[in-house]
Amino acid sequence: MKIKIKKLNEGAKIPSYAHFDDAGVDLYAVSDVLIKVGERVQVPTGLAMELPVGYVGLIWDKSGLSHKHGLKTLGGVLDSGYRGEILVGIINLGKEEYRLEKGHKVAQMIIQEKVSVEFEEVSELDESERGGGNFGSTGK
């Protein structure tokens, strides 16, 4: 599949796969961003793209940034109708400020088919083995 992509900033890097069989393409920061402890920021990528109808881009953490530095992505859904700049929401849950530098990987995006559903309101749901069991219901 080919996806149209537009550079909004001359220094922007086109998303790329680190390995041929990776699920996510790497997204890169287009400018330096300092993220203080507990701070939320929007990291610009300098890119806009045209996802085909029926597809969605889901933005996820880079595992090294999240595990080693406590950087967590926020609200990463790129709909097919969106044509604005791809911004990556990040919160620093770590213990030290972190400086993202221009050209460094900030997140990864998985592009996948989406399913549209229709909701039907009912008065009862079918029984299941789990039922209403929630957090911790399956034990340690």
Give a quick precis of the structure.
This protein is mostly beta strands.
Structural class: mainly beta
The second-level CATH architecture is Distorted Sandwich
CATH class, named: Mainly Beta
Summarize the amount of helix as a percent range: under 10%
What's the CATH topology name?
A: Deoxyuridine 5'-Triphosphate Nucleotidohydrolase, Chain A
Mean pLDDT: 94
Number of domains: 1
Ends distance = 43 Å
| Uncertain runs | none
Main sheet summary: 4 strands, antiparallel
Strand % is 35-45%
**What's the count of strands?**
11
Q: In sequence order, what are the helices and strands, one letter per element?
A: EEEEEEHEEEEE
Query: Rg from C-alpha positions?
Result: 18 Å
What does this structure look like?
There is one protein chain. The protein has a single domain (4-113), classed as Deoxyuridine triphosphatase (dUTPase) (Deoxyuridine 5'-Triphosphate Nucleotidohydrolase, Chain A, Distorted Sandwich), CATH 2.70.40. Helices cover 5% and strands 36% of the residues. It contains one helix and eleven strands, in the order ββββββαβββββ. The chain has one helix at residues 63-69, and strands at residues 4-7, 25-28, 33-35, 40-44, 47-50, 55-60, 71-74, 77-79, 87-92, 98-100, 105-113. The strands form four sheets. Strands 2-11-6-8 form a four-stranded antiparallel β-sheet, with no helix packed on it. A three-stranded antiparallel β-sheet has the order 4-9-7. It is globular and about 55 Å long. It starts with a strand and ends in a 27-residue tail after the last strand.
